[in-house]
Amino acid sequence: MFPRVDAMTTPNDTLRAVRVSLRLSQDDLAKALRDWGLSVGQPNDASKRLVQRWEAGISRFPRPVYTRALEGVTGLPVESLGFAPPAPMARVSSDGSGGHDLAPGEDGITPVPAASPQPAVFPNSLNFNGIWLSRYEFFSSGRDGSYEGRHYVVLYQHGNRLTGRSLAGASSNADSPLSLDLTVDLNVVTGTWTEQTAANGYYQGARYHGAVQLLVDPTGRRMSGKWVGFGKDFDVNTGPWELVFRDTSTSKATLDAYSRPPE
Questions:
Q1: CA distances from residue 85 to 79, 107, 117, 119, 180 in whole angstroms, order as listed
Q2: Tens digit of pLDDT for each residue in 106-147?
Q3: N or C: which end of the chain has fewer CB within 10 A?
Q4: 174 within 8 A of 201, measured Cβ to Cβ
Q5: What pLDDT sits at residue 226?
Q6: Phi-psi region of 190 (alpha: psi -120 to 50; beta: other; left: phi over 0)
Q7: pTM for the complete prediction?
């Protein structure tokens, strides 16, 4: 006998991509779900096996207690995690007439799932509020080498607008506050940036500004692209820039926890 294979089972690659973008193993995600449940007084029994069943498409939609935990941990609505809501059962008679209010199993009636909408390739309901790790690369002509600037920034979303600022003390280059003013159009993020370098740093308090354009990956938890700006000799410079999601919370305790130089 061959094992029975459900032809309707489709792996949930979206959930797996979100998990990987958060740098979590299946065990890690299960633990994060349990921890979140305990923190809000809604305990759950999430396990590695359960995460495996979700990602394999065996379990197509989580129970409410897990739905809330998944949304709490990832910051995404459950529909954007590759799950399709359970569809009501539509009954169709064997003669094709349909529309009869009969119970499943009655003669001539076959329960069939009603068609359910598929999740969009790029969801429009992404929430970008939270803590992000900003990381860009630049070339220093004075030092003849490439360097990296890193900041923990907090993003606030207002419709399709994103405003961001670095947290106090959360810069890899001494104290160099960074601010962002961005606009979201589906998976394209465009806007401007400003950085005030540290007075006692290499650039002696110089203020730099420019433009940035980023592409958001399907998980909504990573943006990557290019920045452009003017150098001290009035030349135009450019380089890679990315923002990687870290935490959905913008509470004072969370902001304080990230008010430190990124590792």
A1: 7, 29, 9, 10, 36
A2: 333 344 444 444 443 445 457 899 999 999 998 776 677 787
A3: N
A4: yes
A5: 94
A6: beta
A7: 0.55
